[in-house]
Amino acid sequence: MVQERALPKIQSASAQITKEEGLVLYEDMILGRFFEDKCAEMYYRGKMFGFVHLYNGQEAVSTGVIQAMRPGEDYVCSTYRDHVHALSAGVPAREVMAELFGKATGCSKGRGGSMHLFSAEHKLLGGFAFIGEGIPVATGAAFQSKYRREVMGDENADQVTAAFFGDGTTNNGQFFECLNMAALWKLPILFVVENNKWAIGMAHDRATSQPEIYKKASVFGMPGYEVDGMDVLAVRAIAQEAVVRARAGEGPTLIECLTYRFRGHSLADPDELRSKDEKEAWFARDPIKKLAAYLLEQNLADQSELKAIEKKIQTIVDEAVEFGVNSPEPDASELYRYIFAED
Known about the structure:
Structural class: alpha/beta
Order of helices and strands: HHEHHHEHEEEHEHEHHH
Number of strands: 7
CATH architecture: 3-Layer(aba) Sandwich
Number of domains: 1
CATH class: Alpha Beta
Largest sheet: 5 strands, parallel
CATH topology: Rossmann fold
Strand content: 5-15%
Radius of gyration: 19 Å
């Protein structure tokens, strides 16, 4: 069983939200959860193929960070567990689902599939099949924002980039090289570690000489924070601070979110390595249930409003499946299209 780390000091008690903000967060998290549940259903029914890595349990990280940014304007760079990042970034559910079915109407035109979602319109820089691949891409996006603003004089180039990656990735070279570069150049980027305790089947504490990843930020002279990744308000609060710093030209931040995936590494993973007790302990900390309880306790919502959101999202997800199933396959005549830039 993975050793439990004490909860971070940053808690949601200090994170004040309005009713509107709370419902937006809840809707975004419900969209992620319902969408992933539907993906599992389609996969096990033999309607979806290839590798599919679901995000169930980690919704507070995607929602907390991306909703603290400017979706559609700021940049988001993901991993192979990218469906929910895409949804939080504003990519329509039907385009994401169609991509998972390999259809021409998908956000990557049916060329990418589950691990390679991309949307220029929504500033989604892509999902990447190999760990660490997205970090240099995100660092480059942050560099161009700074370059356009400070060298080319574009005052509107104040975009912030968020790079998401897992705990296993922080033992790779790209992580260290890009943190160093971002710190040197004070790039407007958030390095977001989704520490779900397991790198496929390797327990985090067995794979690194410093399990507290946020402490690695100090080596590069940048702020590093540990946050309860099952608490969307806590994640949002620290992400907001990091975004303000980045947009003000004060450089990068490393945020370690302690979270947990409720399913196996992928839908092909029998998930036999993690203990039952460990999983049940984390299931009890479901981030969606936690937010719902908070909204009800603070009189920011009632059960009927939450149920209405769930009904609305279920309709969106069902329609996304219908759209994906009925969309056309990519035409064979376009096999070489989208390989090179087009006029």
